[in-house]
Amino acid sequence: MTKKSKKPDVVETVSFDEHARKDFLTGFHKRKVEKKKQRQEKAKELAKQERREARRDRLSKLSAVMPELERIEAISRGARSATGADGPKAKVSTIKQKQKVTTVTVTEMDPDDL
């Protein structure tokens, strides 16, 4: 059998800090307000992050559609310059809604021009 070494009896002392106790007991409101402020800042940061992601998505979708829009614009410019003074038959419609006005132009095009 092995003998266990006997630890010397150490007397632990507990010190009482009246100032720390008072800070703990009177600081509930302060800590509550601080937590609320941190939550608000976190929510603000999350909203900012969501706006950034939405902007990134919008720009990526626009960049994917942009070549097609440029092609359509080039075709329409070519059709306008090729029509001359007399021009082809074109129908212009204007659709008015509460917040926006949309103008639609329908032009006859020759498939050989494409």
Would you spell out the secondary-structure blueprint of this structure?
Layout: H1 18-26, H2 28-83, E1 90-96, E2 101-107
Antiparallel strand pairs: 1-2
Give a description of the structure.
The chain has 114 residues and is an alpha+beta fold. It is 57% helix and 12% strand. The chain contains two helices and two strands; from the N terminus they run H-H-E-E. It has a two-stranded antiparallel ribbon. The longest helix is centred in the middle third of the chain and has 56 residues, at 28-83. The chain starts with 17 loop residues before the first helix and ends in a 7-residue tail after the last strand. The relative contact order is 0.06. The model is unreliable at 82-86 (pLDDT under 50). Pfam families: Nop25. It comes from Polyrhizophydium stewartii. Residues 29-62 are annotated as: Disordered.
Throw out a few tags for this protein.
about 110 residues, alpha+beta
Describe the structure concisely for a colleague:
The protein has 114 residues and is an alpha+beta fold. It has helices at residues 18-26, 28-83, and strands at residues 90-96, 101-107. 57% of the residues lie in helices and 12% in strands.
